[in-house]
Amino acid sequence: MPLSTKFDAALTYASELHRTQVRKGSNIPYVGHLLSVCSRVIAEGGTEVQSIAALLHDAAEDQGGLERLADIRRKFGEEVAAIVADCTDSYVEPKPEWRPRKEAYLAPLRNKPKASLLISLCDKVDNAEAILRDYGEIGDAVWARFTGGREGTGWYYRTLASIFQTAYPGRLADTLSRVVSGFPTGGRAT
Q1: Which of 7, 24, 113, 117 is the most exposed place for a label (fewest CB within 10 A)?
Q2: What is the overall mean pLDDT for the chain?
Q3: Model pTM?
Q4: Phi and psi at residue 39, in whole multiples of 5°?
């Protein structure tokens, strides 16, 4: 699939929006996550619309809420905006309480369009791999980065893995399940 100058514009837009953001608990530029999610989407045969949405999947949630979503709609079209909306769990700052927000994201997930599920799944695989990698390096200290702590984060990712096994079965869902199985279980959140 050839990518057009619209993809180039989305790449620049995402980089500008997230320029000062880093991954939780690290100095890694956040744009690396966006590029990784986009790369996974492309490798899975995603369309240009899905690739653009992958670059922008956190833009509304982290960089401007509904106004940002409206700007994405104007610049990149309704299809991209709809996928970004499906990947967003909050449009406001401060964000609502963690557990109810995650439950609200999970409830309709299995019924989302396949186009949106691919981006969400690629995002969750990238996040889960980063968590497991960091857990291997710094141990239980990694859980302090997450509002849900060890227990909540484990619950969230195990639930995601279960949903994706039925809503978007295949190699990528299997990867998420495998990675999440490496998360520690039990005990109290730190």
Answers
A1: 113
A2: 95
A3: 0.95
A4: -60, -40
